[in-house]
Structure formats: structure tokens, C-alpha cells
Amino acid sequence: MSINSKQYTQKLITGEKAADLIKSGDEIVYGGFILAPIFIDGFIAKRIQEKELSNIRLTTMCFPGISQAVAADPKREHLIYDNPFFSPGDRILHEMGICNHIPSLFSEIPTFFQHKYISLDILFLRTTPMDDHGFFNYGLANTFIRYLIENAKIVVVETNTTMPYCLGGLDEAVHLSEVDYIVESDNAPIISTDPVPASDTEKIIADYLIKVIDEGACLQLGIGGMPNALGALIAQAGIKGLGIHTEMLVDSVVDMYEAGCITNRNKDVFTGKIAYTFGFGSQKLYDFMDKNPACASYPVHIVNNPDIISQNKNVVSINNAIEADLFGQISSESKGHKHISGSGGQFDFVQGAYRSEGGKSFICMTSTYTDKKGEQYSRIVPQFSPATGITVPRTMTQYVVTEYGIAQLKGKSTWKRAESLIDIAHPDFRNELVKKAEEFNIWRPVNKKMD
């Protein structure tokens, strides 16, 4: 028996025993995204239900589904749940009043643990099974795991055989010697989602964007129907020499890569590699990422660092938003008190593209949305509802895109911004927006009249 095999056996425990490690008053952290320990979470939930624990604080981000441990304590008598970026399940828990938001930039989260703003007694982390060299690969999410491992008093890994083994440029795995306990899970398939079909409106937005993407550009794309449509258009158009430096690796990148559009040879940072910090999408994406030397995961403080992003020329950052106000402020995380997600890395990449030589930052959204009652509202608004979180300040907003066109705001005065934004608002709301702009003293007689 090898040294690694012997140590592995000594550290191997059950999921129930892993949950038993927690003591009342502990601060525990789950790996974020796909790295959440779904198997162990169920055993922790049982201890919560049986009232064996009190004053537990759990921190994670974008939990896949709904945490059983959090749901087991609907009155928050035993566990407090903090989260810097919501998944749909986290959003439900927040609406129930049992999930707190941590305002943050994704690139800054490592410092929360490095400087002890968030204490960490036990880290529970889902990984691949141990490889022949004694390493547990983080799979789909590099993010800030290294900082968690270095600051946790106890490290517990939950292995899952369905996790892709993702090659990295830095800190993509933890060695057995740094792990205190190992739990072999039931190997339930990790969560995946098929690409969302683009709506007709999103296809129009994608049509605008493809016209401003040049050969050799370095792209950052998010998830959703519009990025999927844009990726398909790029693949069809055969735009060559593209590079990828992105927070999130998504299915549209696979389409572009297979079409021969991505070479990563024109990048100045991480040349030759698709650089990312986490991936989420379909099984096709996961198969593409598995042991693929074209891809390299890096910690989020590197991938999302605006100073590093901007070292690439011609960065094109494409992100979604919920609303934009007439001054050019962007909200991509909340509407009033209703919290939807988080800042994530949007502002990181907006800054990176803004500073990049030849860079372009696009904030994209449909011009309207329809609520559950069937009433239509403009996404371009005079001002945000009270308590709305500002994701991108007006000083850093460059391009805003709807199905009615692209508004370029960089270098424009407030009244020129208002005119540009109203130009791309839905026609049914333009006159109302003009009236509000006049009230705000950002509309001049020289502005064109709206029909």
C-alpha cells in the first residue's frame, strides 16, 4: 500500500461522521457553485432538524438547488445563512427570510477569508476523487478555494466521480496532506443545464453585438439566451483568432471553439489558453472541460482582476442587466428590496474592458419585461427603486444595448446620456422618460423630440 493510499484510508469517514464534526457556534463554509457538498449537506440538515446544533453560520455562494441544511431551519433558530451571489434556490430562501446577502465583488471575496472578515472553522468541499498523485481536483470551480483551504481549521472533501477533472493554470487542486477528512459521496450526477434558447428579442441584440466584434478580440461572455445566440452567430460568421478570458465558462464557448474561431493566440495574458475561474452549463460543456489542455482555471482574484484583464488588448465584455437609469447607472442584481443574484464579476470585467486598449464593455438587456400580471415595464428607468443595488456606476458604463440599438455613453454629458438611452428604450415609454429627464434637468431644447 502506498503512502497516499494509507493516509487516504485513515482520513476516510462517512457523511454522517462529517456532519458530526460541527459544534454549536461553528462557522462553516461550503464550496461555491458545483463544489457545494450536496451529500454532506443532507446529514447536516438532519442534525439541524433534531436541534443538535445552535448558532451555526454557513457561508457559500450560488448553491446548486436549495440547501437542505438551510431549509431545515425556516425560523433561523439554529443556522444563519450568508451568501454573496444567489442561485435561483438561494433567491427563494432569501424571499423566505432565511438567506442574507453579502455585497461584494467576486474578485475581492478571497480577502474576506484571508483577512478574517469571515471566520472559518470547517470547510466542506466537493471535488473529484483523488488522482494517482494524491490530489483532489476542484473540477468546475477554482474561484477562491485555495484561500478557504489555507484559512480553515478543518478541511473536509466530498468526492464525486461525475465531476470533470479540469486542468488549471494555478491552484486547481488540493493535496491529500492538506485534507483532514474524506467522504466518498453517493456520486449523484452534478447539476447541469442545457443552453437556454434565445428569444427573438435576444437574437436582435446578438445581431447588434456581432457587428462590433473584430477578429482577434478577447471575449468575456455570461450565460443565457443572448450569449448563446451570439456564440452561434460568431461560429457561423467564422470570426477568427478570438481569445477567451472570462469569469464563467459557458456552452457558447464550445460552439465557437469547435468552429475554429478561438485560438487564444492574440491574447497578451494566458496566451493559448481559455482562461476562466468556474464553469456551468450542459454536459457537453463539462465533457469539453474534462482534462482539456486548451482550458485553464485560475483563482478568481487573478481571472477577475481588472489590471490583469486589461493587459489583453481588444477585450469585449458582454453582460446582462436588470435595469439602467437615465444617468447610466446599471443594476444587475436587485430591484428595490427584491434581491436576484449579486454583483459577481460584472464590475470587474466592465473595468477591465474599459481600461483595455481597444476594449469595449457592453451591458445588454431587453427594453422591457412583463410581470406575473401581464403588465409591461421599461428596463430603462428615470431612477431606480429605493434599495436597488448599483452594480456598475455611471462613470464606468460604456455601451448599453437593447433590441433598439446601442447607446455609447463614455465621454457624454448627462443630457446626452439621457438622449442616447431614451433612443434605445421601448417606444411606448420614451415620452414618459423624456418628461422625467426634463424634471431632472438632463433634457435640453436641442434634444430631439420623441414620437
UniProtKB/TrEMBL annotation:
Protein name: Probable butyrate:acetyl-CoA coenzyme A-transferase
InterPro entries xrefs: AcetylCoA_hyd_C, AcetylCoA_hyd_C_sf, ActCoA_hydro, ActCoA_hydro_N, Butryl-CoA_acetate_CoA_Tfrase, NagB/RpiA_transferase-like
Role this protein plays: Coenzyme A-transferase that converts butyrate to butyryl-CoA.
Active-site residue list: 247
UniProt domain Acetyl-CoA hydrolase/transferase N-terminal: residue ranges: 6-189
Main location: cytoplasm
Reaction catalysis annotation: butanoate + acetyl-CoA = butanoyl-CoA + acetate
Acetyl-CoA hydrolase/transferase C-terminal domain: residues covered: 281-437
Pfam families named in the record: AcetylCoA_hyd_C, AcetylCoA_hydro
GO MF term list: acetate CoA-transferase activity; hydrolase activity
Subcellular localization, as worded in the UniProt entry: Cytoplasm
Source organism: Candidatus Magnetoglobus multicellularis str. Araruama
Ligand binding (CoA): 222-226, 322, 345
SUPFAM superfamilies registered for this protein in UniProt: NagB/RpiA/CoA transferase-like
Alphabetical list of Gene3D superfamilies matching this protein: 4-hydroxybutyrate coenzyme like domains, Acetyl-CoA hydrolase/transferase C-terminal domain, Glutaconate Coenzyme A-transferase
Pathway: Lipid metabolism; butanoate metabolism
Family (UniProt): Belongs to the acetyl-CoA hydrolase/transferase family.
Entry keywords, A to Z: Cytoplasm, Fatty acid metabolism, Hydrolase, Lipid metabolism, Transferase
Record GO cellular component, one term: cytoplasm
BP terms from Gene Ontology: acetate metabolic process; acetyl-CoA metabolic process; butyrate metabolic process
Enzyme type, top EC level: transferase
